[in-house]
């Protein structure tokens, strides 16, 4: 079905571009369809918006970079295509409930507690 094919192409395009392109317009244009049509297809198939899919990938990537690298917050923000570190910070707090720095320190503390032998 056409809508399933469009959705599959959207997901492929999204996986290749989500770090650089956070707006629905880019994806609709890449697929040669309107933003309204893309929105309708994605919402119908998944129950979620295009914006939700983009932000889920960005958030998962941000968590991984915060946990598994020594990149500073500014470098992570740049790597994920945010215009400013503060924009990234607000996005991350909205998605997770904590700041990127707090997330990282909590994870580091959790790792240390996990690695310590029980007394």
How would you describe this protein?
The chain is mostly helical and 119 residues long. It has a single domain, classed as Orthogonal Bundle (Arc Repressor Mutant, subunit A), CATH 1.10.10.60. The chain is 75% helix and 0% strand. It has seven helices and no strands. The protein has helices at 2-17, 24-30, 35-46, 50-68, 73-79, 85-96, 100-115. Helix 5 (73-79) packs across helix 6. It is elongated. The model has no long low-confidence stretch (mean pLDDT 94).
List keywords for this structure.
119 residues; mainly alpha; Arc Repressor Mutant, subunit A; 0% strand
Task: Give the structure's gist in a few sentences.
With about 120 residues, this protein is mainly α.
What is the strand and helix layout of this fold?
Layout: H1 2-17, H2 24-30, H3 35-46, H4 50-68, H5 73-79, H6 85-96, H7 100-115
Helix pairs in contact: 1-3, 2-3, 4-6, 4-7, 5-6
Assign the structural class, choosing from mainly alpha, mainly beta, alpha/beta, alpha+beta, or little secondary structure. mainly alpha
CATH superfamily heading = Homeodomain-like
User: What percentage of residues falls in helices of 4 or more residues?
Assistant: over 70%
Count of beta strands: 0
The total of helices stands at: 7
What is the annotated CATH architecture? Answer: Orthogonal Bundle
SSE pattern: HHHHHHH
**CATH topology descriptor:** Arc Repressor Mutant, subunit A
């Amino acid at each position: 079905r056409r809508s399933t094919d469009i959705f599959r192409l959207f997901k492929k395009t999204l996986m290749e571009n989500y770090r650089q392109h956070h707006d629905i317009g880019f994806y609709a244009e890449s697929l040669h369809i309107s933003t309204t049509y893309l929105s309708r297809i994605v919402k119908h198939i998944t129950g979620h918006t295009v914006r939700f899919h983009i932000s889920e990938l960005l958030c998962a990537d941000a968590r991984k970079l915060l946990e598994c690298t020594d990149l500073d917050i500014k470098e992570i923000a740049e790597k994920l295509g945010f215009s400013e570190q503060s924009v990234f910070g607000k996005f991350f707090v909205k998605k997770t409930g904590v700041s990127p720095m707090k997330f990282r320190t909590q994870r580091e503390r959790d790792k240390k507690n996990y690695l310590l032998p029980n007394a």
